[in-house]
């Protein structure tokens, strides 16, 4: 298999991985439902390029953390279907990663969306 074909296949696998998480993880859907209007609002409110990049990075960070969290949960379930304290701690830490990224992103969003009277323009 050529390198370009293998490279293309890696994108296909990644795409299907994202679809699988969307199909099975309610929180990923919630993050996407929040992300889409947030990204649209940045355009309606005239965010500058830096502000748009910050919001896009925050959205990507939360989604990436959710993908990693799901991967850790799935691997933990595969390794030990029964309860194991080490796997529980790993899953909890991964969930904490998502929570930290979501809270930080929400705080950044509040700062960006409430400056310069932007919310009043919606």
Would you write up a description of this structure?
- This protein is mainly α.
- It has helices at residues 3-24, 26-44, 49-79, 85-114.
- Helix 2 (26-44) runs antiparallel to helix 3 (49-79).
- The model has no long low-confidence stretch (mean pLDDT 95).
Structural class: mainly alpha
Task: Give the integer mean of the pLDDT values.
Answer: 95
CATH topology description: Helix Hairpins
* Terminus-to-terminus distance: 52 Å
The SSE order reads HHHH
Radius of gyration: 18 Å
Number of helices: 4
- Described by the principal axes of the CA atoms, the overall outline is globular
Number of DSSP E strands: 0
**Fraction in helix:** over 70%
Largest sheet: none
The structural domain count equals 1
CATH level 1 name: Mainly Alpha
Quaternary assembly = single chain
Named at the architecture level, the CATH assignment is Orthogonal Bundle
């Amino acid at each position: 298999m050529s390198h370009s074909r293998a490279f293309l296949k890696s994108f296909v696998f990644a795409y299907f991985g994202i679809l699988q998480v969307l199909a099975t993880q309610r929180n990923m859907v919630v993050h996407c439902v929040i992300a889409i209007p947030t990204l649209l609002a940045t355009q309606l409110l005239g965010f500058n390029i830096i502000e748009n990049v910050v919001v896009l990075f925050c959205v990507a960070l939360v989604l990436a953390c959710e993908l990693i969290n799901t991967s850790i949960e799935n691997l933990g379930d595969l390794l030990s279907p029964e309860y194991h304290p080490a796997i529980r701690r790993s899953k909890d830490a991964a969930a904490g990663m998502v929570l930290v990224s979501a809270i930080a992103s929400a705080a950044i969003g509040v700062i960006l969306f409430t400056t310069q009277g932007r919310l009043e323009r919606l």
